[in-house]
Give the backbone structure.
Amino acid sequence: MTKNINDNICNEQLFSSVFTKYSKSLHDFLYYKFGEAFNPKDKAQEAFIKLWENCHKVSPSKAKSYLFTVANNLMLNEAAHQKVVLKFQKEKPKHYTNETPEFILEGNEYMLKLQTAIANLSEAQRTAFLLNRVEGKKHKEIAVLLEISTKAVEKRIYGALKKLRKDIKEL
Amino acid sequence: MKQEELIKKWLDNDLNSHELEAFKQLEEYAELVRISNGVKQFRAPEYNTSEELKSTLQLISTKKSRTNNWLKPFLRIAAILAISFSVYYYTTTLDTNISTLMAQKTTLELPDASLVSLNAESTLIYNKKAWKNKRDLSLNGEAYFKVAKGATFNVNTPEGIVSVLGTQFNVKQRHNYFEVVCYEGSVRVTQKLNIVTLKPGESFLIINGKRIAKEKETALNPSWINNESSFKSMPFTQVIHEFERQYNVIVNPQNIDLNQLFSGSFSHDDIELALKSITLPLNINYSLQNDATIVLSHN
């Protein structure tokens, strides 16, 4: 690790590198946790602007924690624990399909069930599970991101999977 | 147990080929893959890092300039407030200046309800703001005071200082003339090296730098308050000056002894009568010339 002489991120270059490093993770984290109703993009941006305004007080090593905490609080101020419903992208119709309409209908039904099941997950479970399954992050990466142990991440993800299976069967 | 381990490893994308085969044999395999694939469609919307960085940096720079823009009108308001406050402060702490012209009298109330009557051609200066802490005023001319009880009350004149603690007294300071008459309470007069305390009825009189003893005053207040000037053994020149002040005229005395003493009084309301009052006893003729000049001469 190289030591920084000026131990804050008021320098625009340093700020940009921090931005490049964390902004997508932050955005994805906010999206999976709170859904898109409260503008995860704007909240991520707001968090970075807050970071810039307080750049004297935040060392680069603390920047990530700072960003996630600030963004999370910004969300909590607005979201107030509403049910989070994520959107799924409609699959593009294939050029030549040999799927029967029943199959497509069943597929849609399945996706709706999945949507409800995901909405029923706890915030912690949903965030960890989707970061893992959708973004393809390893348990260890998620652990670093959320500042929890790898074991806890594994537990959350496995718990989420179990709950999804159960919910889908019941629905 | 083995099955849970496998699923967990699969979730972490950590299966080796051997384990992968075993995983595929699980009865849940199809279901798990379906969930896994289905979930992928809940992908977060595209996030373009470099674009977002650009817009964030832009926002930061506009925010900076916005704070400047916001500061400018604020500074303007602050400047206006500062100016108006200083003007207000300056005007309210300014000395209050009250003067009377020739043939004019006025009565005013000081901030502590003390009363001052100002005789003709006199000036009174005091500070409203400082009055609470220091009852101090400057007088040029003649004034009658009814002082409310309280801290020391100082009347500064060019001739001397009169200090009191709630009384009624008259101060008359004219050219080469300084007189203090106490009507109630007690008054201390400091004049050069003289310090005199006056009891009711006593007076302190200095003419041309000489102290002159006076009889005890019996009136309850100075006669000029009742529109009359009265004199007891007063050099005639003082009488003439007072007459000039009361009627706003110029008196031109010819071949008359101005130092002879005069006892008597004249009214402030009737110039003919007043002239007679001061000339007849001394056997002097008077003639009115064009409105404002009076010539006095011996027969």
User: Anything to note?
Assistant: Chain B touches chain A through 32 residues (CB under 8 Å). Residues 227-298 of chain B form a domain with the Phage tail protein beta-alpha-beta fold fold (CATH 3.55.50.30). The mean pLDDT of chain B is 84. Chain B has three domains: 2-39, 96-212, 227-298.
